[in-house]
Design goal:
Blueprint (H helix, E strand, L loop, with lengths): L26 H4 L12 H12 L5 H19 L14 H14 L6 H14 L5 H14 L13 E3 L3 E4 L2 E4 L19 H15 L14 H12 L14 H5 L7
Antiparallel strand pairs: 1-2, 2-3
Length: about 260
């Protein structure tokens, strides 16, 4: 028999049974817990969180647009209007914080505050969607909550490269130049069309902000070749790992086995 230490605590968290097809807990299981119901975060909660994190660096008018858009998209995702092709999509505070971090990083550049906020909202909230009706749903919400009628954000992206860095638009990454044998060679170079520039720009920006990007798309749409090109530019080794339901962190970054 195992006796827990006096300081041991067991806590559980869970979504409702309607979320992602999860089953209900039995009455016997529920009776073992003291239930604390967490209400969804509202406008005031989200404003407080963002103000605490970013202070006054994000203008109130732009912060209001971001939070209004977030709440509308949370509703749309909960209703199944967006994210059906992905199984289930959940927008959370992480999305807000990513937009806020990006906004602050690029504020004061070529884009006005309203254009910058719209661009970052689009990339974070719409970036993983590819079904036309879902994209339209997000666009309709954006046009109401964060309207923008300016030029295409990716029309005039310029790529430059030095011995130590490479830049696309307003994003610059430093080269690692490891000299590793697995760095993709010159065959990995790509001709940058408008489409590939946009994808590369968004990939670079995610890396610049410490995010973990996932490239989604149809077969033969250039996802793998774009990653190889990025590895070539950065001077980093490229490894390929197939992902599936059974993939865990050890498959990706290694770990310890029973031999140490």
């Amino acid at each position: 028999m195992i006796t827990p230490a006096a300081s041991f605590r067991l806590l559980a968290t869970g979504n409702g049974s309607a979320y992602a097809g999860r089953g209900k807990l039995s009455a016997a299981q529920r009776s073992r817990w003291t239930t604390v119901f967490c209400q969804p975060l509202g406008e005031k909660d989200l404003t407080t969180i963002m103000k605490k994190k970013f202070g006054d660096t994000i203008p109130d008018s732009e912060l209001a647009k971001l939070i209004t858009t977030h709440l509308a998209l949370v509703q749309a995702a909960d209703a199944g209007d967006v994210g059906r092709s992905l199984g289930r999509l959940a927008y959370s505070v992480r999305n807000l914080l990513r937009v806020g971090q990006r906004f602050v990083r690029h504020q004061g550049g070529a884009l006005s505050d309203d254009a910058l906020m719209r661009r970052e909202i689009e990339e974070i909230y719409r970036g993983g969607l590819f079904e036309p009706d879902e994209v339209k749903t997000v666009d309709d919400i954006l046009q109401l909550s964060a309207p923008y009628d300016g030029s295409d954000f990716y029309e005039h992206l310029e790529f430059t490269e030095t011995a130590d860095t490479f830049t696309l638009g307003d994003v610059t990454l430093r080269k690692v130049n490891t000299g590793h044998a697995e760095i993709p060679n010159d065959k990995a170079k790509q001709i940058l069309t408008k489409r590939t520039k946009k994808a590369l720009y968004q990939l670079m920006k995610a890396i610049e902000n410490g995010e973990n990007p996932a490239l989604l798309g149809e077969r033969a749409s250039g996802k793998t070749s774009l990653v190889k090109f990025l590895a070539h530019l950065a001077g980093q080794p490229y490894y390929r790992q197939m992902l599936g339901e059974g993939t865990d962190a050890m498959d990706l970054i290694g770990g310890y086995d029973d031999q140490g």
